[in-house]
Automatic annotation (TrEMBL):
<dbReference type="GO" id="GO:0005506">
    <property type="term" value="F:iron ion binding"/>
</dbReference>
<keyword id="KW-0500">Molybdenum</keyword>
<protein>
    <submittedName>
        <fullName>Xanthine dehydrogenase family protein molybdopterin-binding subunit</fullName>
    </submittedName>
</protein>
<keyword id="KW-0560">Oxidoreductase</keyword>
<dbReference type="InterPro" id="IPR046867">
    <property type="entry name" value="AldOxase/xan_DH_MoCoBD2"/>
</dbReference>
<dbReference type="InterPro" id="IPR000674">
    <property type="entry name" value="Ald_Oxase/Xan_DH_a/b"/>
</dbReference>
<dbReference type="InterPro" id="IPR008274">
    <property type="entry name" value="AldOxase/xan_DH_MoCoBD1"/>
</dbReference>
<dbReference type="Pfam" id="PF01315">
    <property type="entry name" value="Ald_Xan_dh_C"/>
</dbReference>
<dbReference type="InterPro" id="IPR037165">
    <property type="entry name" value="AldOxase/xan_DH_Mopterin-bd_sf"/>
</dbReference>
<dbReference type="GO" id="GO:0016491">
    <property type="term" value="F:oxidoreductase activity"/>
</dbReference>
<feature type="domain" description="Aldehyde oxidase/xanthine dehydrogenase a/b hammerhead">
    <location>
        <begin position="20"/>
        <end position="124"/>
    </location>
</feature>
<dbReference type="InterPro" id="IPR016208">
    <property type="entry name" value="Ald_Oxase/xanthine_DH-like"/>
</dbReference>
<dbReference type="Pfam" id="PF20256">
    <property type="entry name" value="MoCoBD_2"/>
</dbReference>
<dbReference type="Pfam" id="PF02738">
    <property type="entry name" value="MoCoBD_1"/>
</dbReference>
<dbReference type="InterPro" id="IPR036856">
    <property type="entry name" value="Ald_Oxase/Xan_DH_a/b_sf"/>
</dbReference>
Length: 693
């Protein structure tokens, strides 16, 4: 056995609770006198409600109330218009909520919702993405943070002068997050105090939003999320169901439970927007890139602007003296897109890495070698050195482990029976981000230690890793540390997003624990009966972090596929990834994040897609019977490794985030393997049999 310190494969602390069904998710919390709510989605894509008839719904046995824009409480101001539910008769997209039935039982609520009669005046809708859509505009920023356009050198001239040119358009479809636990809320009012059990990636944000919407001081709102059954970004911001549940609880005077029914999730919980991406790469005959342009076209809803930074990885990956990266967006009458695992990097690296594979073929250079030739010590756009850049090491180690050496580059020449086989690879990257956080560390009279911070464990193992960080900083075995996370009454901490959670919360936990250890050492005598407590805030530490370095994680992904030459069915045979992610804090939970990301990337390559129905104006695949996700049988062998990568410029643990990089590049590795197997370039995801026959 070990002390469960950093770097050891400690098992998830809540693992037993989860597998025995005692861990409580948002609607599992028992509350007295609880009722249930079921939302009513709009059946038009654009227009106005002309009347709502609730009589039949209210006549259903057990139905207590029907909320509509006519009787729902008025809400305060927030930035996110998707949360301003039941405030107006306008309909911005199909599936937007227009009413809510509340009843004594879930079944009665569902029957009540089905009996609400809504009449509309429909208007023509516009729901199909095209790069030449007349509404395309240049947003101020993308994903709230990144420069929309960047230009270095003279792309047009350098591209025109290049010996070898690739100019292709790649398309990614809308994708849905579909965490196992749907977006769900239990809302309980006690006088003017509101308690919400919420399935969220960040309780503080939910608290702040509810306080603003319901005109409450934040101290009167408690949001807890002790266990969360996945999120992938879709729970990074509050969703309409929490607002509806709180409204309904106020309206009925009873606690309310509301879990978004799976077929409604696609319309109200965000999705990865479809993209159209033109990539142009100009290189010399040896494959050295001189000109690189990545132009991204996507959409957002009319309610909210959200734009994935899909061209941003092209600013980071390869030496490219002349570069242009742009994003354009149009507003369609569609559900609002939002974060989904590696927003930006995931879509953007599919296009960039697929184009790199095409460049390798055009130059007759091995694709691993092509990446090595274009490796760079400084981030091309900023000119900053990387704090660490293990891309080359990942490429070499991955090629060795996968057995890449001696690969015959010719496409369509290997078969086993009726299966054509092929291999492919791509690179990965993801920024190493960090946000300010607070934490408290307490030495208790019992001899145990308590650590408190409002981190969220969405299934990643964050609770376990934070315990290890505290134990190491305190110099005690992890079994002596009790951790409290997932409640807005705890010291404030940022959202579990952008792969920044462990770096951000962990820094605060490390700081508090280290300060506590120092105080204990100075105390020299017995602890006071009340124990000893230290609180830490990393706002200044994060602000002081040197701006001189570019900080990113990197990786190399390898795939082997087999394609049925009669049916066009593609099967994954192997996925292998090697990642440079700083210091790995817990190899067991880290591996599960990386492997999970790779499986999601394989799923994106071969299975996942959502079709916009132009007539009804909504996504056609709205449940897990029609929206296909990879299951175990789709992923026979998947392995993740990492290189040793000490990096002093990150945070006190030396770690980079690992939640998202696993999905980045996987789809390009798979399409490059499909090309190698069949000779067919699939530039329009997912790979479908009809594209290969
Ligand atoms: Mo992740 S999409 O930043 O939660």
């Amino acid at each position: 056995m070990n002390g469960g310190g950093l770097g050891e494969p400690l098992a998830r602390l809540e693992g037993r609770e989860k597998v025995t069904g005692t861990a409580r998710y948002a609607v599992d919390h028992p509350v007295d006198g609880c009722c249930y709510a079921w939302p009513v989605p709009a059946t038009i894509a654009k227009g106005e409600i002309t009347s709502i008839d609730c009589a039949a719904a209210l006549a259903e046995p057990g139905v207590l109330a029907v909320l509509t824009h006519e009787n729902a409480p008025r809400l305060g101001e927030v930035d996110d218009a998707t949360l301003l539910v039941l405030q107006s008769p306008r309909v911005a997209h199909r599936g937007q909520y227009v009413a809510l039935a509340v009843a004594d039982s879930l079944e009665a609520a569902r029957a009540g919702a089905g009996a609400v009669r809504v009449d509309y005046r429909a208007e023509p809708h516009d729901v199909v993405l095209r790069a030449d859509h007349p509404g395309m505009y240049k947003p101020d920023k993308v994903n709230g943070l990144y420069a929309t356009d960047r230009e270095r050198g003279d792309f047009d001239a350098a591209y025109a002068d290049s010996a070898v040119c690739v100019d292709e358009v790649y398309r990614t479809p809308a994708l849905h997050n579909h965490p196992m636990e749907p977006h769900a809320t239990t809302a309980v009012w006690a006088g003017d105090r509101l308690r919400v059990y919420e399935s969220t990636q960040g309780a503080d944000w939910v608290r702040e939003t509810l306080a603003a919407l319901f005109a409450l001081p934040e101290e009167q709102v408690t949001v807890s999320c002790e266990h969360v059954g996945g999120g992938f970004g879709s729970k990074g911001t509050p969703r309409p169901q929490v607002v509806l549940a709180v409204m309904a609880a106020r309206h009925t005077g009873r606690p309310v439970k509301l879990a978004v029914p799976r077929p409604q999730m696609a319309a109200v919980t965000g999705h990865r927007a479809a993209t159209e991406q033109r990539v142009r790469i100009g290189a010399d005959a040896e494959g050295r890139i001189s000109a690189l342009a990545h132009e991204v076209y996507t959409y957002s809803s009319t309610l909210r602007e959200f734009v994935e930074q899909a061209a941003v990885p092209a600013r980071i990956m390869y030496a490219s003296p002349h570069s242009r990266t742009t994003h354009r967006v149009t507003r369609l009458d569609v559900p609002s897109p939002s974060w989904m695992r590696a927003p930006g990097e995931c879509s953007g690296m599919f296009a960039l890495e697929a184009a790199m594979d095409e460049l390798a073929v055009a130059c007759r250079i091995d694709p691993v070698e092509l990446r090595l030739r274009n490796d760079t010590d400084t981030e091309p756009d900023s000119g900053h050195p990387f704090s660490s850049r293990g891309l080359a090491a990942c490429l070499r180690d991955g090629a060795r482990r996968f057995g890449w050496a001696g690969r015959d580059p010719r496409p369509g020449v290997r078969s086993e029976g009726r299966w054509l086989t092929g291999t492919g690879m791509a690179a990965s990257c993801y920024p190493a981000q960090v946000a300010p956080s607070q934490a408290e560390a307490v030495a208790e009279a019992s001899g145990r230690f308590r650590v408190r911070t409002n981190a969220t464990d969405i299934g990643t193992g964050a609770r376990t890793v934070l315990t290890q960080i505290a134990a190491e900083a305190l110099g005690v075995p992890s079994q002596l540390v009790d951790i409290e996370i997932g409640c807005s009454d705890l010291p404030p901490a940022p959202v579990a997003g952008g792969s920044s959670g462990t770096a951000s919360w962990g820094w605060a936990v490390h700081k508090a624990a280290q300060a506590l250890a120092k105080e204990l050492a100075e105390l020299g005598g017995p602890l006071p009966e009340t124990g000893l407590s230290v609180r830490a805030d990393t706002a200044q530490d994060v602000a002081d972090r040197s701006q001189r370095y570019a900080r990113h994680a990197f990786g190399a992904q390898f795939a082997e596929v087999a394609v049925d030459m009669d049916t066009g069915e593609t099967r994954l045979r192997r996925l292998l990834g090697v990642f440079a992610v700083g210091r790995v804090l817990n190899p067991r939970t880290a591996r599960s994040q990386l492997v999970g990301g790779m499986i999601m990337g394989g799923s994106m390559a071969l299975l996942e897609h959502s079709t916009m129905d132009p007539r009804f104006g909504d996504h056609a695949e709205r449940d897990l019977a029609s929206y296909h996700l990879a299951v175990c049988a789709d992923v026979p062998e998947v392995s993740a490794y990492w290189i040793d990568e000490p990096d002093e410029q990150l945070n006190p643990m030396g770690s980079k985030g690992i939640g998202e990089i696993g999905i980045v590049g996987t789809a390009a590795a798979v399409t490059s393997a499909v090309w190698h197997a069949t000779g067919v370039r699939v530039r329009d995801l997912p790979v479908r049999p009809e594209l290969l026959l």
